[in-house]
Amino acid sequence: MKPKAAKAEKPPRPWWQRWLKKHFSLCIDNRQELINELHQAQAKGLLENDSLGMIEGVLRIEQLEARDVMIPRSHIKFLHRGANFQELVSEVMKSRHSRYPVYNEDQDDFDGILLTKDLLNYMGREKEFDIDDILFSANVIPESKHLQSLLTDFRNTRKHMAIVINEYSSVSGIVTIEDVLEQIVGDIDDEHDIVDNKINIKQHSEQHYSLDALTPIREFNQSFNTHISFDKFDTIGGIVMSRLGKIPKQGQELRFGQFLFQITRSDGRRILSMDLFIDHTETQLLQT
Prior knowledge:
- With 288 residues, the protein is α+β, with helices and mostly antiparallel strands.
- It has three domains: 31-63, no CATH class; 67-185, CBS-domain, CATH 3.10.580.10; 201-278, Uridine Diphospho-n-acetylenolpyruvylglucosamine Reductase, domain 3 (2-Layer Sandwich), CATH 3.30.465.10.
- It is built from ten helices and 13 strands.
- The protein has helices at 15-23, 31-43, 49-61, 66-69, 85-95, 116-120, 147-157, 177-185, 217-224, 236-244, and strands at residues 71-72, 79-80, 99-103, 110-115, 135-136, 139-142, 161-165, 171-176, 201-203, 208-212, 253-256, 259-266, 271-278.
- The strands form three sheets. It has a five-stranded antiparallel β-sheet, with helices on one face. The protein has a four-stranded mixed β-sheet with strand order 1-8-7-6.
- Strand 9 and strand 10 (208-212) form a beta hairpin.
């Protein structure tokens, strides 16, 4: 009779499994119960505030789609394929982005993505420039693409920008890897972002403005001669979200007196930015 082989010892559990088993119930049935447990752990000092925020962000991107975080078409800086080298450099110097979608006949006829660093490699040898040599194929995704899946695509393809199209195959926006990561770690400012002197209200015409949702109500009142109370809310985004009764998705609108607010960016927590359209024929002023 052969002796029984010695039973192999199981390797020790990873530290994070031991930590979870020690501090959390294994009978959690749904996402909200898990979030509640995490908040209790944070209250007991087992999790830092930043760590809790990132864990919630990871859970949140499983529910968000490209349409929820994309930069809308109206805010995209496109480059035209037919522009010469100097024209392209001039456009890049004005907007200072690292990547640009390039179109041919119209903005739905996109040819690819241009990286600024590749364009600048031709400085001093402009006669050698051929845009076909530096265009990358675009990663095209539907508005319904889940962010978790999109983040995997970014990692696998090493492309950090995706063109978002609607059901009619028209461009509705773009999403970058930064847009996705910001859902986890919060806003990411680079060296070109002017934090202290941030422009909250940008005018495009007499009827059209872009607003940062964190624009103080006092500043909004001064800019548009309105009389909104800031007893309950400090920002214009807070007022709009209160009126809508929920966190709105991108593209939703609120008409309020002579103003039409259109959400251009939002996430699962708050409004990020809005377009504002003013009807100067409307006599009712925005007041609350």
